[in-house]
Amino acid sequence: MARLKLKLQLYCDDEVAMGPGKADLLEAIGREGSISAAGRALGMSYRRAWLLVDQMNRCFRKPLVETRPGGGKAAGASLTAEGEAALSAYRTLSARLAGDTQCTAFEDLESAIRARPRPRPRE
């Protein structure tokens, strides 16, 4: 049986404003309370996580993540109301698209796909 995997990406000009990895990063920031801890939880460097946050904040009309610089308990990052709304809308749309496979086009493709790929020819 074929498996359908959709990768929803929203673009701002030529930049990916939101995709599955950025949605995961937003969730991790909300859970961990900092960009560095979110990056660690997802196995990415602080720099990579920060660059992704910066890209999202530049692409959306209002920032999705706000940072609180400094040290101690007051420092960190959190999702703005817009960030929470964007994450929720993205997850809802992704789930809707992934669940909407009951159509003739998908059934046609599914019936045309083999259960397993043919072996590669020997060279």
UniProtKB/TrEMBL annotation:
InterPro entries, sorted? LysR_HTH_N, Molybdate_resp_trans_reg, WH-like_DNA-bd_sf, WH_DNA-bd_sf
A molecular-function term among this protein's GO annotations: DNA-binding transcription factor activity
Q: Superkingdom of this entry's organism?
A: Bacteria
One Pfam family cited in the UniProt record for this chain: HTH_1
What protein does this entry describe? Molybdenum-pterin-binding protein MopA
